[in-house]
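Bug #77: duplicate submission created two jobs. Keeping one. Sequence:
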Amino acid sequence: MAPSPFTRLLPFLWAVLHLTGAQQTFSSSSQLDISACPITFYGKTYRQFYVNFTSESFVVCFGGFYSPGGPHDCLLVTPPDSQRASLEVNRRIPLMEMILHRNLPSIQSRMDCFAGFSLQHGGQSTSLALVSFGRLSALYLYTTAAGTVAVDVHLSGTRVRTVTVTNTPGDKQIRGYLDTSGCFYSGVIYSPGSQVNSPETCLFLNCSEDLGLQVSACGPLERCQGNGSCIEAPPETPMPRRTCTVVGPAVLDVHGQMRLVEDRCSYALLSAPDLQIVATFQERRRKDVGFLDGVILQLGRSDVHVSLDPGGRIRLNNLTMVLDGSAQRVYGVEVSKNRTGVTVQVSRSNLTASVFFNGDSVQLHLEGPAVPSLGGLCGNSSGTLGGVRPPEFSSTGCETRYSDAVDTSINCTLMAERCNVLKGAPFSSCDTDPEPYITACRDVLCKYGDVDGLRCQFLEVYARACSLSSGAALEGLRSRAECSPPVGLCQDRTCGPNEFCSETGPDGQPRCLCRALFASEYLERNTLGGSTVCRQNSASLSLVGCLLEDKGIDYTQLHLNDPACRGQMNEQTRMVTFSFNSSSCGTEVLTNSSHVIFKNTIRGQNVSSDVTRYTQFHMDSSCAQTQPDVQTVAFSVRGSTVVQLATSGSWNYTLTLEAFTDAGLSQAVQSSTELQLNQRIWVELRTHGLEESTVVMVMDSCWATDNGTSRYELIHNGCANPADRTVQVERNGQTASSVFSFKMFSFSESSGDVDLTCRLKLCFRREESCSPECSRSPTRRSARSNHRGAAASILDP
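Kept job's structure:
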C-alpha cells in the first residue's frame, strides 16, 4: 500500500514544528511554562509542565513533580537515549489538525495550539505533542526508532492508558494517538458530555465540555442513604489490615507465623465467601522443597477462576487474557500488569484483597471485617495441610515428599548474615516486624542456597509489606542489599511443564532449567535425554532442552553426522528431537546374520572442548532391527494380481506379484487373457510401504509348478536359470521391484495352468550393490527338454 500524503509530509511537519516555537531545552528536573498554550487534560486545565528523568522513564507531570503513586497526573515515556530534551509551544498547524481529526473521530473541533517535546530513542527522533482543541485535547506520539516507544498515562497516581509505537523492519507504525479529553473521577474516565445520576450511591456527575467536571457526592464523613441524600456517618473503627506473603516455599500468614511447603500440591491461601485464593507449588532445583509456581483466584461459582501463571501469563477459565497496558475488569475483578508483575484487585462485602504476583512470590494485602476470621494458610499457617488442599487443583500423589542430599556448599552462617540486613537501615524505619521474614529467609536459603534471586525476593516482599502497612519508602535498600530493581526478568518467558525460569543465566538473561524430579531420571543415568526410538527403518533421539541449557549447550549448534541434520525443538515439551533413517544424515548401516543396525552420532559445532567431550560421550544413537524374513509369494499366471501383507518383526509392507504381456508392464494378464505357447510373459514383484532410498527388494528364486509334483526353476540365487535362455532377469536388487520374463509353456503331463512361486528378501542400500552378479554359459542347451514332465514348448528362440 502506498503511503498517504499525511505519511509523506510527516517528516516535513515535524521539521516545521521545530522552527515555529520558542524552544526550552532541559537536562534535569524543570518547571516549564506553557501559558501560551494551556492544555486541558482530562477536564483539568494546566499552564505548566513538571518534567524530570528517572532510571525508568522520562516524566511529564501536571500540577507537581512526579513521585511513584503520587496524586499528580503524569505521562511516563520510555527512557530516551540521554537525559536531554526540549519543549516548544507552537500555534495551530492545519496539516497536524487534519491528521488528528482523521485518527481521532471523537475530536473534530478547531485546533488551538500544541506543546511538543523532542527526544532521541535509538538514535532516531521522537516527538511527543499535547494538542489543545479548546476544552478537548489529544496526545500525539511520533517516532522512527526501531522497537517500541511507550507513553503511560497516569491519573491521580494510577496508570489508566498506554500509547505505544512499534517499528520493525517489516512493519513501521511510526505514529500513536490518544484522546485525552473528558473527565477523571474515582478511577473512571468519563467522555465529554457524560452524566451520572445515581441516588443509590448519591453520586451526581456531569462531565461538561464547557465547564469541566461537576460532581455532587457524599463527603468523607457522610454516608449515602440510598435515596440521593447523605447523612453524617457514625465514627468507624479502623478496618483490620493484614499482609500475607509467600516466597518460594515459605508462607507467612497474617499473624506473622511461618510455614514451609515441602511437596508439590496446591493450597488455599485464603478462603472466604465467594472467594478462594489458591497457591500452586512445584519443586525447582531440589526435590524436597516446594516452590510457589502460580496463583488461582476462584470467584463465586467454582467454574470461574483467574489463573496467574509463571511468565506473567493470565488466564480466565483457561483462556489467555491480553492486557493492553491498562487495567481490565472481569467478573468484578480488576487485573493489571506491569514490568514487575501482575496485580489483581477483588472486593467482597466484608473483604478487599489485593494480590501481587511476580512469578517468585505472591503478596496478599487484605482489608475488611472478615480479615480476623479468614480461612486458608494466610489465616492460619500452622493447621493441617490436608484441610486446605483443594483436590480440583492438586494432582494425585502431589503430597508425596522426597528426600534430597544436603548441599554442603551452603554456608548457613553466611546466609543468616545476608538475611539479617532486614534489621538495619533502611529497613529499621519500617514498623513491620522483620523477624518472621528473617526466619523464613534464613531457613530457606540454608537449605536451598542463595540462587535464582531468592535472597532479594525476601528483601523485596518485606519492603513491599512495609509500604503496604505504613506507606514507608525504603530508599537505598537495593544498593545496600546488592539487589537489582524489581523487574520481572522472567515475564513473558514461557518454560515447559517440567521447567522453571531462572534469572541467573551467564549472559544475564533468563533461562529455563529442569525441575529436580524430572531431571533426576536422566541424571541418575548420566544422560541428557531418553533412549533411541527405533522404527522400521528410521530412528529418533530426543534430548531434554533444559538439561542442555543447564550445561551451557546451545542445541542449535548440535547436528548428526551430516551437519545439515539438526534437532527440532518442541515448544510445548521443550524436547529437542534428532531424526534419521538408514539412508540419511550420514547414518551408518551395519548388518550381520540376524540384525540390521542403524548408527548415528549427535555432534557439537563451535562449542567448548568440555561440552564436546560431554556431547560425544552421550550422543551416540543406534537401532538394531531384526533382519526381515525371506518372503514367499505364489500365483497362477492366468490369475489376477496377488497382494500379500508381509510382517516380520518391526517390518510391515505389502507384496504384489503380477504378470504382463508387454515389456512396459502396462498390459496385465487377466483370467480371460489368451496366452500362447512360446509367448513371452513379464512378471513383476513389488514391495509397498518401504522407503526405496533405504531398502530394495532382491528376488532370490522363482519356479513354476503345475499344482502337482512337477517343478521347473526359472530364477535361482537371484539369476536366471543358466540352462534356460528363454528366462531373462530385467531388474533385480535395484529398486522396490524386481522384473523377469520367460516364454510361456505348459507341463506335458498336465493340462492345468502354470503356477509361479517366488522367494524374495530385502537388501539395505550401502556402498556395495544389492544386485546379484549373474553370468550365463554360452553353450548351454535348454533344460526344459530334459525336465521330467517337460513343457510342450521347449525350443529356444
